[in-house]
Amino acid sequence: MVSRKSEISSKVPAADATLRILQHLSRQRGPVPASTIATALDLPRSTVYHLLTVLVERSFVVHIPEERRYGLGLAAYELSSGFSRQQPLTRLGTPLLDKLVDRLGESAHLAVLHGTDVLYLVEERAPRRPSLVTDVGVRLPAPLTASGRALLSALPPAQLRALYPDKGAFTQREGRGPQSYGELKVLLAQAQRDGYAVENGEITPGLASIGVVVRDHAGWPAAGIAVTFPISEPEGDARLKLMIDALLPALAQTAQELGRRIHGAK
């Protein structure tokens, strides 16, 4: 017996194939060849190439000609951010950030990638801590923030390059932050090695943040969680290291728990 769902899909084959391609790309670790997509989905290669051409034109897919591979584009990430804005991440993340702030006594926030920016979905301010610019709904350049750097460090190189093709893609804040793809890669390589990202005074002088990535069921970066704390210039690197050692275990535990909740694990 043919299900109602299968019957509808058979009547709109192009739409069904397009969505299957997007779903397949979302589960991959990085861009893949069109032939691999066709084989995996049992679709004619000509159909896959035609659909990929349209998806590239609409920015849902990015084509890396040097590698002859295709990956998710900016429009796909914006759909993901749209999903995030419609409450699920906010509802799942708010109670966890509440507990994190109570435990650490420092302010915390949850953000998602939105193009080359991070969009803040949750902010939990600790008592007697200064107000932050990372209020709900605020967007900031991802390379300047701890949560943004954590998210970007988890992207495949080709996806990262598509976001930052030239110097024009970078926004600075009072002269602070990376000015080129090369400078950004140095920051992200450090974040990959450490398992967390750091921002010190690049958003607000006197405040520093450490951020970690929240991964979905396929290992893709779904969100970033960061904790912000005061730090004065005379305290320098010693204070920063002390705070990282004190805050990181609980921060990482919260990110892992949110990752489990995103894909329904208990």
UniProtKB/TrEMBL annotation:
GO biological process entries: negative regulation of DNA-templated transcription
Domain IclR-ED: 75-264
Domain HTH iclR-type: residue ranges: 12-74
Sorted UniProt keywords: DNA-binding, Transcription, Transcription regulation
MF (Gene Ontology): DNA binding; DNA-binding transcription factor activity
Keyword flag Transcription: yes
Keyword Transcription: yes
InterPro entries in alphabetical order: ArsR-like_HTH (IPR011991), GAF-like_dom_sf (IPR029016), HTH_MetabolicPath_Reg (IPR050707), Tscrpt_reg_IclR_C (IPR014757), Tscrpt_reg_IclR_N (IPR005471), WH-like_DNA-bd_sf (IPR036388), WH_DNA-bd_sf (IPR036390)
Protein name per its UniProtKB record: DNA-binding IclR family transcriptional regulator
Source organism (scientific name): Alpinimonas psychrophila
Lineage per the UniProt record: Bacteria, Bacillati, Actinomycetota, Actinomycetes, Micrococcales
